[in-house]
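Notes taken during the Thursday session

The instructor put the following on the board and asked us to keep it in front of us for the whole hour. The protein is homogentisate 1,2-dioxygenase. We were told not to look anything up and to reason only from what is written here. First, the residues (454 in total):
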Amino acid sequence: MPLTAFTYDDAYQYLNGFGDYHETESITGALPIARNSPQKPAYGLYTEKLSGTAFTVPRADNQQTWLYRILPSAAHANFEAYKPRASPTDTNGDTVNGLPNEKKLRFTPDQLLFDPFDIEEKEDWVSGMRLVAGAGDPTMKTGLGIYVITAGVDMPAKQAYYSADGDLLIVPQHGVLDIQTELGKLTVRPNEIVVIPRGIRFRVTLPTGPVRAFALELYQGHFKLPELGFIGSSGLANARDFQVPVAAYEEDHHSEWHVVARFDGDLFQLRQSHSPFDVVAWHGTYYPYKYDLSRFNTVGSVSFDHLDPSIYTVLTAPSDTAGVSIADFVFFAPRWSVQEDTFRPPWYHRNTMSEFSGMIEAEFDLSKSKGLQPAGATLHNTMSGHGPESRSHEVASKEELVPKKEGTSVKAFMFESSLMLGVTEWALTHSGKVRPSYTEEKWQPLKVHFQKPT
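Then, after some discussion, the predicted structure tokens were revealed:
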């Protein structure tokens, strides 16, 4: 039977600093201290190390956690191929979940608009994962994948999931996620995000019904807080606002459990006779965490023009080149527009970065909008021009430049990457969500205002 040492609503703690060392135990004395012999862990537990980085990376980047559990994760039968439950979008008998028939990505310079993705209510968290876009190769630990995840039922009892491909940053758009991880439990709601690092096993249940989320799977490195530079010592996402779970264990070493693994995009399954959630205590720097986006401290311009959208970065995954990211998670929080004598919407622009944007919610009906809608997304790839639609340009060119509160009625985010992003056949065709007239409707109506001097 499950044994816990906390109330469910208090199943996480704030960090003193993002990425800091953390320790937690659900039974007093389960964590070893220096004067105790490591030969025999307390309570007959096994010691297991979970490494998120190479052992020899610099101390500041090192992410390792020691687990004290009832049985080690190595105690299981052989892996076998896993096929998730059939999906309404599964038209050819092959799974369209993840990468098995999607390893060939289509790279297109076209700007793409996806109408809201439908919630597949017969799916669970694993079977409801659909790869939309990506770049790189998880076997080489380079690049990323972008998913839309919809589900209407809990993951099966006695089942867990993990990804060997990368860290998973999840952005809920609809519904609540109860996430049981090896290191404890987290409840995640819309307007919050959660990061589950590579290899950590978890199970998702749906306490309020169907859910829809966007997710970025990072094959390369880990997310961290961006440097603040001239902003100073605080601002944007502050370290104190991140939360991690406290230890909670499940004592079940008599039932058959299934653990599903994503490995190079394919799904595998193992069987074992004990719960994967049997960690009684842990300490280290490698753990899942969540963040409430309402705590984001926005920085903005107060004179003219725009600061680059990097000022809205919540988390970043740096590349080996200084200042260049494999992925940034950007959140457009409520903020004041107070620039003087300037055009306030984003300028028309072409970026070396690719931009995958999604809308979390809007306080007014956008169901007939020609643009981005809640649960929808856009992809503006490397060097493809984009910016405000023609009507927005006309209005913004004439409006009175008084202070105006932005972002109070619409919550949106962006996955930004230095990589050119390919799109899956599922996203382009099977989903039925690509708006074919997006470019023509949004930018072709722009009028010529040029007046040659006489």
